[in-house]
Each structure stands twice: as C-alpha cells, then as structure tokens.
Write a structure and sequence with these properties.
Elements: H1 2-11, H2 19-29, H3 39-63, H4 68-90, H5 101-106, H6 109-128
Helix pairs in contact: 3-4, 3-6
Length: 135
Amino acid sequence: MATKTKTTEKHGANGAHKGPALESAWIRAFKSESEWPDKDEFLDVVYWARQLLGIAIGVLWGLVPLKGFVALVLFALVNAGILYVYCTSFQKVDEEEYGGAWELTKEGFMTSFAGFLVTWIIIYTGLHSDTRLGL
C-alpha cells in the first residue's frame, strides 16, 4: 500500500511523470500572460522567485551598504512590489483567484526574508566591518 502511494506522489494521479510539467511551469514563468491551469504551480513559481529575489536583494543591500530599519523596510517594499507587479502586470493573473492581493504578497515572504537577512548580514559584515577576526 505504501508503494502505491509513493508511486502516485511521484508520477501524479494519472501516472504521468511530473518532470516535464515542472519544466513547462518555469518556461511559462518567463512568458508574459501565461495560462496557469493549476493554481499551485503558479504559487510555486511565486514562492521560488521570491526566494531568489530575497537573496539578490541581500547581496545588493550588503554591497551598497544599507543598514538598519531603512534597509528592512526597503526590502519589504521592493520584494512585495516586484512580485506584485510580476503577478498583475507581467502574468496578468486575477489576484482574486488566488485569494486576493494579500495572499500573493505573503506567499513565501517570511522564508525570503530569512534568506535576505542571512545574505545581507554575511555580505555587509564581510565587506564593511572594521573589526577582523583574529584567527
């Protein structure tokens, strides 16, 4: 019974392998006004795009160097703004189909924030810290 469940999870309910479907989701992610028959696929794209964006912003904020509350607020605004514009202007999805603007805005936000913080702290400390570790 456990083997059947694992096979269904791996290949989907109809027995088709999910590999090409995942690839087509990423291809559709870069094409404007793509069709998203599976809402979870689009939310997965939003989630992973937000993770990459969080790390990229962390590197940028560390290089600039931004610090303090201003950097945190700017991260939230830039991260939420870019993904919102991507969803509504580039993909032209109806945000109400996904639970409204707030649901799209918060999809993966906290994990993106964590990735941003780690990246930002490492880059900022490595480049702009006056104290060096004496090992």
